[in-house]
Sequence to fold (81 residues):
Amino acid sequence: MMNPEQIKKIIAEGLSCEGLHVEGDGEHFEAILVSSAFAGKSRVQRQQLVNAILRPYFDSGELHALSMKTLTPEERSALRG
Fold:
């Protein structure tokens, strides 16, 4: 079973993030990712990028469920007002 810090570390090693927050209960996790790498990509493409990084953990069953919000730094700034 994984914990939020493990997931955060794996994502950070595979994707340059300006902001990364992961929380969860050991089975279901939620992540907020802010990365310039998301610029010009659709929501689906962004999630595919993150899922590709985590694929070995999904495939092995170590990671069961991750919902995510993916933003560019500009989108995060716009949300903050």
The mean pLDDT is 96. Helices lie at 4-14, 43-60, 73-80. Residues 43-60 form the longest helix (18 residues). Strands lie at 19-24, 28-34, 65-71.
